[in-house]
């Protein structure tokens, strides 16, 4: 038994490890983080995720547990953060998304977006006020950048912040803002006379309203919101002093994109594992479908793309540790990982047959979630243009 009284976790080794032994490429510290996240995902997310997805239920008590495990803002230094390596953070994202994209998204919104914004650009007082509680999961943050007219062109942002004496007054709307209705603080990006600036908005502030978006067929066990800022009045020191212009939010988006490079491969691994298991047990024409050439060809193609995606993620993690990772390289990873994860999920569904569209297997849930992951933090097209600009030296946006 664990100290909490729960049964000691029994965490199965992924079936793909029969061919791809990722642990051989990792440090002991990285393996520890990976196993810790796998145990959390197996024992705290997987037992309820299918029902939570069906019920559109966000299991809020897991936030503090993620904090206690050290996963929130784990790549940051100080203020109660773990100070873990880039690869360790990536491995945690992979394991959490192998359970469900919504929980990796929470870790990304909290740590890579909201906490990173405060850590990178905040004053010491702002860091001390917010970061320790956020690292512990006692406080939740959100990152309000995207607007109803579209997320791919933040330069066209319509939310404004104007000076009124010593105060700031924010007016505008944001859309698809993860965690906004349960957040304690929102990092809101707005146009000012001096360009785009970031503001820390306690969510109990008058004029701030977050409304969960209904009707989602994807990311149903997590929360995304419309946010209205109706004359939100903030003190002068609510602005993030270290960020002016779009380089501020983009610096945070690249942190989140790095986590997606890893996380999408977790969803892919879950789908591939389900397909391998089903290919061994499902019999057609008198033998398991895994003994048939077409099925083995599909599994082989899926494994190759999964392994390539993880090796790319590992390469990017090593570059990040050295401080040489570029935005274009991150775009290569995000574009490849999500695109191939969706392809793997589709092939897995075909191997599962009709049962693949039921919640007996995780594949359709992952496939639906990955369509959201494909869209946020830069669509395929945006990342293609980032890569194209790096190759040609010309901007095509």
Outline of the structure:
The protein has 397 residues and is of the alpha+beta class.
- Report the radius of gyration as a whole number of Å: 21 Å
Secondary-structure element order, as H and E? HHHHHEEEEEEEEHEEHHHH
Task: Please describe the biggest sheet, giving its number of strands, its sense, and whether it closes into a barrel.
Answer: 4 strands, mixed
CATH topology of the largest domain, which one? Answer: Butyryl-CoA Dehydrogenase, subunit A, domain 3
Hey, roughly how much beta strand do the residues contain?
15-25%
Distance between the termini: 56 Å
Shape: globular
CATH class of the largest domain: Mainly Alpha
**Helical residue percent?**
40-55%
Q: Give the number of domains.
A: 3
Regions with little confidence, pLDDT below 50 for 5+ residues:
1-9
Query: Tally of extended strands?
Result: 10
Number of continuous helical runs: 10
Class based on secondary structure composition and strand pairing:
alpha+beta
The CATH architecture of the largest domain:
Up-down Bundle
CATH superfamily of the largest domain: Butyryl-CoA Dehydrogenase, subunit A, domain 3
Mean pLDDT: 95
How do the strands line up in the largest sheet? 1-4-5-8
Protein name: glutaryl-CoA dehydrogenase (ETF)
Family: Belongs to the acyl-CoA dehydrogenase family.
Enzyme class: oxidoreductase
Pathway: Amino-acid metabolism; tryptophan metabolism; Amino-acid metabolism; lysine degradation
